[in-house]
Amino acid sequence: MDTSKKQILLEFREHGIRDKSVLIVEPNECHGETLPGFTKYFQDLGYCVDIFMRTGTFNENPFSRYPQSLYPNIYKGCSTEIKNTLASPEILEYDYVFFNSNWEYAHGKTYTAYLGFFPQAKFGSMFVEHGAYFFQKNECNCLYGQERVFALTDALGGEMGIKTLSPHYFGDVRITKKSSDEVRFAVVGVSPDRRNVDLLLDAVDTLTKGGVENFRITCIGDGRRSVPKGLGGVLNFLGRQSFSVLYEEVEKADFILALLDPSSENHRNYLRGKASGTVQLSLGFGKPMIIEEHFAEVYGFNNENCLLYRGNELASTMKNAIEMSQGEYCNIQHGLKDKKDDLGMKSINNLRRFLVRVKELDLRTKRCAELIDSEMNNIRDDINRMNRVVYDLNREITFMRSSRFWKMRCLWNNVKVFVSSPAKFIRKYFKIV
Asked: Most exposed: 45, 68, 160, 324, by fewest CB within 10 Å?
């Protein structure tokens, strides 16, 4: 192990694990936007939280908006350093290890298969599934049987038969009103397997040709491309940025464009409930999504908390968003807040019930163990008593077989004869003489 790996383990082992603590682990250089929400759920339930994430995610700082008074201990490292840490004896001091992903992208397998072991926290481990195509129930059968796996969306939970745990807390966020002059749209992630950017370009072209130009679109994430000629005034690709930049751009936006296409083979996993960061950001920042109606139905959204369109009708829906009144916008934000509150309450209750059930199961297990120990002690006492009886009998049998016993028995018989009939004893004695 090189010096840097030793230093990571040393820092982790010396930081001091508090009572009632959870270790959250993200094994991939993604999904960082979900970490603040899961941290908040555990903190709201009275747990102290430590986090181990990949170095790339750490540098992007998903906790840039998190309140300093609640800031968790955060450690960074490569996949090998995280694996070595999870095998260390310090893990025994945590109540739980919570894996933010159940899939190791670099090796193409479930994370437990990559580790080759289950971390030995006091009450075990739990996982989050991000998509049904990662679902490898046969590799983690015991965890699914114990309901230790959660889904990021209701649709995914229904597909897999597990409970929902959906994070949408990012820290200090301003819920803003709709811009009065230039309406701002945000797109998070622009790679073809996640977003249909061509659909966006067609919509922008349609709007500008129709004389609608009082809007601006900012695209953030991998898959940066050049801006087509003539669209530079309304469209900007920032590429992959830190979370502080991402949060700032989403906060400044009025709407978030999901850009999911039901005709795209790459997007059909989203129709099976695969989690989308756009949904989490919409809920957390109070920004209405513009989303194709089939995907909205999967995620439980409707025209009371988002803007819907069908097929390729994006341009007309964006035009409606630009022309929307402040009152209409506030109504959608209220609907969005209601959905956020309902989903948050459902999620934290699912987590609370799981934690209570595990504690109760552990308590029952300990009581059963105490009863078994008590019965075993009684059995051992009975065995010891039987052993003493057998030992005494063996001593008696051994003595009865000895010559000493027979001599004493003969003497005793003579004494009985002397006592009962002295004359008979004397005659017998003199006869022998």
From this structure: 68
